[in-house]
Amino acid sequence: MYLKLVACTTHTHTGLRHGQGTHHYSNGDTYDGYFTDDLRSGQGVFQYANGDRYTGEYAQNVQKGKGTLTFASGCEYVGEFADDKFNGVGMLTLASGGSYQGGFVDGLFHGHGIYRWENGSIYNGAWSKGKRNGEGVFTEENGDTDTSTWVDGVRSGLARFSWKNGNKYVGAVKEQLHGAGTFLFSDGSVYVGEYKLGKRDGHGK
């Protein structure tokens, strides 16, 4: 997930701004904080004309270090920044009630992270470039769980499913049960064989 930040324009002055001050930009943005050699540097508050608000650290005119970015839409990010983007570890809370806590690279979920949906479902695992990539555990709101390998946001490879009703599955998946696997039913019976698009298909016993 990528949230583009609103760009701001600096003004050229004969003298260099240095120390604490407030600058009102022609586009309606406002910065209140510290300057070094005419550049935003240190702690500051940047109020965007569209209602977004950044409070945190700057270096060489860009958001870098720890900060909080509150969006007019109701979303909020608290964590580390670099190059005016979410970079490092942080927590993004969505207006819908969902949230993500973990690693970011260039504004995208990256590394290990936990995503919580507003309905109570949780994904805890690996991310790359904003998508689930690698191993992760997905827990449904009703308690069903699966530990799967993900490729670009899709279950692909080996997985272990455990349903609240007592059924279990270990085997291949391609978003659904797909390929060779073993299904253990809650009544003790077992199916070992092939699946295709979530249904038993081919050789099995």
The number of helical segments is 0
Q: How helical, in percent, are the residues?
A: under 10%
- The parts where pLDDT drops under 50 for at least 5 residues are 1-13
SS-derived structural category: mainly beta
Biggest β-sheet strands, sense, barrel: 17 strands, antiparallel
Over all CA atoms, what is the radius of gyration? 24 Å
What amount of the residues lies in strands? over 45%
The N- and C-terminal alpha carbons lie at a distance of: 43 Å
H/E element sequence: EEEEEEEEEEEEEEEEE
- Overall mean pLDDT stands at 91
Shape: elongated
- List how many beta strands DSSP finds: 17
Question: Mind explaining what this structure looks like?
Answer:
This protein is an all-beta fold and 205 residues long. The protein is 0% helix and 64% strand. It contains no helices and 17 strands. The protein has a 17-stranded antiparallel sheet, with no helix packed on it. Strand 3 (39-47) and strand 4 (53-59) form a beta hairpin.
